[in-house]
Amino acid sequence: IKSRLGYPVYMGAFSLVSLLGFLLIIYGYGQARLDPEIAAPIWIAPEWTRHIILALMPLAFILLAAAYAPTGYIKKYSKHPMITAVKTWALVHVIYNGDLPSILLFGGFLAYGGLSRVMSRLRGDEGQRRASANVLGDIISVVVGLLAYAVFAYYLHEKWIGVPVLPV
User: Fold this and answer.
1) Least confidently predicted of 21-25, 58-62, 107-111, 159-163
2) Residues 6+ positions from 50 with CB-CB distance below 8 Å
3) Residue 168 has what pLDDT?
4) What is the 3-state secondary structure (H, E, C) of the chain?
5) Is it the case that residue 155 has pLDDT exceeding 60?
């Protein structure tokens, strides 16, 4: 299909279908959270687990930024920063959110991240392991990641998800 459509058209269509799928996941998760029977807690995480999220989510945002920044030590040693970011995000959210919709959503992303990493190993994909180290790339990743985390934590999470990250 890619060769028939051409790379730009294929990637555009792939991106649109991916975005549609992601929006449907978000919509379905939001709808499931509204149903009291489905969204009843299976477990209630101790309040101290909130600190795990606050400690690890900046790392997830830094890794996400590193996936797109110029090559640096972060890429070199995390091998697949995007996959590691998704797994970190999913893990801390599955620990803290004990309702069925959250377990399915975040557990699904955690399973996807784990399977994706295993499959990359089986393919012999070492990721960015052999990349040249670039401190500037790391600085860019840290700054952009922390800025993105701050915007999301202080503003967008409550606006988009309906749950404040930080207590008022």
Assistant:
1) 159-163
2) 96
3) 62
4) CHHHHCHHHHHHHHHHHHHHHHHHHHHHHHHHHHCCCCCCECCCCCCCHHHHHHHHHHHHHHHHHHHHCCCCHHHHHHCCHHHHHHHHHHHHHHHHCCEHHHHHHHHHHHHHHHHHHHHHHHCCCCCCCCCCCCHHHHHHHHHHHHHHHHHHHHHHHHHHHCCCCCCC
5) yes
